[in-house]
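Folded chain entry —
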Amino acid sequence: MRKKFLSKIIFGVLFSLAVMFLIGFLSMFTRNFTTGFETFYVVYDGVFYMGSGNKVEFDRASVRFDCRYTLDFLAVEKPSGYTVRVLPNVSAADDFVFYVDGAPHLFSKILDLSVAFDIDGQGDYFIMSVDKSMSEVLQSLYSDSEVVMSSVLTAAHLYFLLEVIPDNGASVVYIEFNNVVPVQSVILDINQINF
C-alpha cells in the first residue's frame, strides 16, 4: 500500500515537471505565447533573439552570433545555412541625406550595408565588426568616392537592422543596432570649466 502511494506521488511530481517543462519550452519559442512557434533563432551574449522587434546595444568592436534551429535534433536531415544582411533602419522622420561626390543620397535608399560590417560566416555562427562610425560605413560602400555627411545623427536611434534568414526560409530574425564607436579624443577648453 505504501509503495503504491509513493509511486503515485513520484509519478505525479514527474508528470507535473514534464508539463511545466513543456509550457516553459513553448513559452520561450513563442515569446510568451504572443507569436507562432519560432523554428530559427540567433544567440548573442547568451540572449536568444527570434522574429522581429529585437534591439541590441553592442559593447565591443566585434560580435559573434550563433545561429540555431529549434528542435533540429529531431530532423532526419539536419537544417543548416543562413544568410546575413545589414539594412538601413530608418523611417521618414529618421532618414538623412549624405553626399557622394557632391550628389545627394538618402540613407533609406541603400539596399545592403553588409560590406561595411565585415561579416564572416563560420558554419553555425558568424562574426561581424561593429566599430565604424556612420561616415566610415558610408565610405565603405562608396570607397572610390568622397562621402560627406550633412546631418547630425541621433545617438538614441538604432540606424542598422541585422537580418538573418535561415536557408529553409521558415522564419527571419531582425535585430536593430548601432555601431560601437570608441571615443578618439577629448578636448577640454580651460575657459569653459567652472570650479
In short: The chain has a mean pLDDT of 82. DSSP finds two helices and twelve strands in the chain. The radius of gyration is 24 Å.
